[in-house]
Amino acid sequence: MKVLILGNKGMLGADLEEIFRDQETFGWDREEIDISKENQVDEKINELKPNLVINAAAYNAVDDAEKNIDIANSINGHAVEFLAKTCKNNDAILVHYSTNYVFEGKNKDGYKEKDKPNPQSMYAKSKVLGEQLLQKFTKKFYLIRTARIFGNPAKSSLAKRSFVNVMLDLACKQEEIRVVDEEYSNTTFSKDLAKRTREIFEWKKPYGIYHVTNEGACTWYEFAKKIFEFKGIDIEIVPVTSKEFPRPAIRPNYSVLINTKLPKMRKWEDALKEYLG
């Protein structure tokens, strides 16, 4: 099987390369292809003719998207259309990742795969655009929504750093860390996400939308407490409201993704403990 992984220098992309290493796998990043250019997508994918395309490339600068909406829409939205059309023409399966931020975040019980998105930020709107274009231009797709990915640092210097690594860096510089005790959500170990991506494909699950995260949910403050507990770091962590850290983009207060279609993954605490080693 010929597998193409887009965004292979990102955190998830690197884990996908590892999980598909026994296949004829190709990893492309921004140096090899600009997915926002339709002619490049057509030319390069038509030449490679992969059986499976996994799009782990994305514009994840949530706050910057408020002023760079054209860039966010181009990468998170229209590029997905180009990929979907080309994959359809080549009879290839397309895997694309989306986010819990597509939901408005008012439902404390969480959101299932069938629930209708209602994005509040420009970043979230760009991701919904990608979801819509994916479903419009190909039927052979797996749309995987996930949340708060953490894992080994990305190879690309432009990739977004995970919350776990940001917290560990701050602990080396500060005696006290103030963390927002809001935004209740799942977290996801990138290696677990990569593994489940392969399983969805190998299990020949019906094409459609899937929610893939580690089990359980927490606030950012609760997440930070576990990070330092597992690392044995003695540091003062102060819970605060989001008003103390005003940001341009609206975040959903409750955006737990409920998985109704797949076996449950391990708890987020177990995955975090393994990552921190």
Attribute tags:
8 helices; alpha/beta; Rossmann fold; two-stranded parallel ribbon; single chain
Question: Could you walk me through the main structural features you see in this protein, from its secondary elements to its overall organization?
Answer:
This protein has a single domain (1-277), classed as NAD(P)-binding Rossmann-like Domain (Rossmann fold), CATH 3.40.50. Helix 2 (38-48) packs parallel to helix 3 (69-89). The two termini are 33 Å apart. The model has no long low-confidence stretch (mean pLDDT 97). It is an alpha/beta fold and 277 residues long. It is globular and about 55 Å long. Strand 3 (52-55), helix 3 and strand 4 (93-99) form a beta-alpha-beta unit. 36% of the residues lie in helices and 16% in strands.
